[in-house]
Amino acid sequence: QVQIVESGGGLVQPGGSLKLSCVASGFTFSSSGMAWYRQAAEKGRELIAATGRSINYADSVKGRFTISRDNAKNAVYLEMNNLKPEDTAVYYCNRLPATDRDVWGQGTQVTVSS
């Protein structure tokens, strides 16, 4: 069955950096588009970065976040630089596209605060 485990979140000051990791199993990772999503408190889930045939970013993170993947490790990463308080959210990775009916990991909390 599908399993997804995110890690790497934490508390960071504005302007700081974090690198998130995600390991997935239970599907053909190398042929799957993968993405990072985030959900802030009292807001819906937002697609912020995706890698498949191309790499795309939401405007809110473009130029600051970088998505990458290692198919040999079934892993996808999100390097986040110049973090802002509005980046505070729970971050998830999943296939692209993914809906509420798909299996989701527990996510990893990112808090940007001084």
Q: How is the biggest beta sheet arranged?
A: 6 strands, mixed
**N-to-C CA distance:** 40 Å
Quote the beta fraction. Answer: over 45%
Number of separate helices: 0
Task: Please give the share of residues in helix.
Answer: under 10%
Q: Shape from CA axes?
A: globular
| Number of E-state strands | 10
Mean pLDDT: 96
Return Rg in Å: 13 Å
* Strand order of the biggest β-sheet: 2-10-9-4-5-6
Q: State the order of secondary-structure elements, H for helix, E for strand.
A: EEEEEEEEEE
- Uncertain runs with pLDDT below 50, 5 residues or more? none
Structural class by helix and strand composition: mainly beta
Descriptive labels:
mainly beta; six-stranded mixed sheet; four-stranded antiparallel sheet; 114 residues
Provide structural commentary:
The mean pLDDT is about 95. Strands 2-10-9-4-5-6 form a six-stranded mixed sheet, with no helix packed on it. It is mostly beta strands and about 110 residues long. A hairpin with a 5-residue loop joins strand 4 (about 35-40) and strand 5. The protein is built from no helices and ten strands.
